Amino acid sequence: MDSRDLRINQLVEIETDMPAYKGVYPSRVEEVVEEGVCLAVPIKHGALIPLRIGDVVRVYFMQDQEVYCLKTDIIARKQNRVPVVVLAHSQDVEKVQRRNWVRIEIGLPVTFYFSDGQFEKVEEGRTLNLSGGGVLFVTRADWLRIGSRIRIRLELPEREPFISPAIVRRIVPPEEKESRGYRVACEFVDIKEGQRDALVKFIFEVQRERLKKGLY
């Protein structure tokens, strides 16, 4: 596998170590050409990130239900339909366990199901933030435990619901006199590539809409 396996319109994420811009940002494959891969220049706070020729970046993408990291360098900048950076073709690709998915703050209805053969529960809550790797939501359910395996249903605006198995990784009890409930962080597991692509696309589109409105 190498960079030539990327496809046009595929959603990816670019990680840079540039001072003041260090982080992971959503992007999209605009073109695959002989000299390299053209990716849309990511945006932060409404402005293009000034990625420079010669900068080394890491590109995360999905393939066959796995996440891969491509390490390469920027060889050019172009103004196509959208501003793009051209990344040199590279075979420096490795499968990774992502822990730094782009995350957005968003409030969505969430329903989660639990069953162990003896105990069954269905509860509701509301998301606080969401990424391609998991979700943080608030709920009044006090029976969840770290390590619990549940099934999550997220109601995405104007889209099919997102449904996935998940494992509870962290629980923060409500503070005294706080009425919102327990904050529960979950990691999506056994998720299909198409599902994750659809979720990442939704997150990408939310970010783009917020950028247009000047909310970043």
TrEMBL record:
Q: Where are the transmembrane segments?
A: none
The protein's matches in Pfam families, at most eight in alphabetical order, are given as: PilZ, PilZNR
- All residue ranges annotated as the Type III secretion system flagellar brake protein YcgR PilZN domain in the record: 8-88
Report the domain of life of the source organism: Bacteria
Q: Name one GO molecular function term.
A: cyclic-di-GMP binding
SUPFAM superfamilies found in the cross-reference section? PilZ domain-like (SSF141371)
Report the InterPro entries cross-referenced here: PilZ_domain (IPR009875), T3SS_YcgR_PilZN (IPR009926)
Q: Which residues form the PilZ domain?
A: 97-205
The record's listing under Gene3D superfamilies reads: predicted glycosyltransferase like domains
Protein name per Swiss-Prot or TrEMBL: Type IV pilus assembly PilZ
Taxonomic classification:
Bacteria, Bacillati, Bacillota, Clostridia, Eubacteriales
